Structures are given as C-alpha cells and as structure tokens.
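Can't paste images in this forum, so I'm doing it all in text. The chain is below; anyone willing to post the predicted structure tokens underneath?
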Amino acid sequence: MGSLASLIHAPPGDLLALLVILLLWLGSGWVIENPPRSRPSVTVLMAVYRRDWMATFVTRSPRIFDATLIDSHRQGTAFFTSASMIAIGGGLALIGNSALMQEIAADLPLDAGQIDLALKVLLPVGFMANALLKFIWAHRLFGYCSILMAAVPNDPADPRAFPRAAQAAEINITAAKSYNRGLHSVYFALAALAWLFGPVALTLAALVTLAVLLRREFWSHSRAVILRHLG
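Text version of the structure:
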C-alpha cells in the first residue's frame, strides 16, 4: 500500500516517465507483430520460414534434425524461465529488505527522495513477471508442437500428413510469438532500472530500448539476409 500511495502522490515527471515506458512497451510490441505489409518485421518473416520448416519436415527422413531443433527451442525457453524467476526473487528480496534499500539510496546518486525506491524496483520486477509468464507458455507450446510433429505420418502421401504439419507450424509460430514477447519484456525490464536515476533517465532508457528493438526488427542486417530468396 505504501508503494501505491507513493505512486498516487508521485511528481508529474515520474508519472509521465512511467506512462512513456508502458506505452512504448505496448506500442512497440504491437507494431512488431502487426507491421505494415510494405515492411514486415523479422518476427513476421520468420513465421513464413516456420511454416516452410513444417512442410519440409513431412518429407524429411530421418527426422532427427527436427526433433533436435524443437528441443533446443524448449531449452531456450527453460533457460529464460529460470533466469526470470531468479530476477524476480532478487527484486522482491531487495524490496523486502528496507535497510539494504536505504543503504543503496545513500551510496548511489539515486533520485529516491521524490518517489518510494521500492516502487522503482517493482517496475522491472513487473516486467520480469510478465516475461516469466510468456516464457512458461512458450515452453508449453513448444511441447505441444513436438507432440503434433510426432503425430505427422511418415508417409507424405497420407492425407493427414500435411494438415497435421500445418497445425504444428501454427503452434510453433504461436510459441515463438510468446517467446518474443518474453524477450521484449526483458528488454524493457533493463530499461526500467534507469528509473532509479530519475524520470529523465527512465524516459531516455525506454527510447533507447525502443530504437534497439525496432532496428533489429526492421533495419538489421539479419533481416536483409532473411528476406533473400523468400517466397
């Protein structure tokens, strides 16, 4: 309740910076997943390759490579799930240790006098909590995908082969979308740490994070490579 009261009575600059980072987080995620048709994002482009992967999977024999690849996807989500839980636990432990919080505020040039320091730590924890939920769901979806892949008949002439592969592709794409959303939250969690140094630092960090994400999705070298021979 103390942190909530601090937020309600926070200076306008802090409230504005908080609103900016939340809007950039939500807005950039929407643009990346719903880009203009004239300039698709890396996320959208990779969905095409995921569908092609499952279509090729039907005729590949043996299918060891596909099983290994989907397992590596699950390992990646499991790693970030564990890392998110550790980050959340560390943040909550810090919030619960008022003496340590006061020492941090005294030792570093933090803008802790205008708004409760616990609230500033709670913001990145909130982003990491969202990331945790996305990674957990992505891990489960990749598991569903592996089961659907296992249910694809070995005979490409079987009428169930390509429809089931298409189902696996859509689950794979959904899992990747959840995984990307988790990474998106991690990026903004790192930016949220800048709030410890004041609202201006938070706003600048959010803008830098936005620039990094948009460049990687729309103007990166990897995107140019992915676009080659697509279609």
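The first helix runs from residue 2 to 8. Residues 8 and 15 are 9 Å apart (CA to CA).
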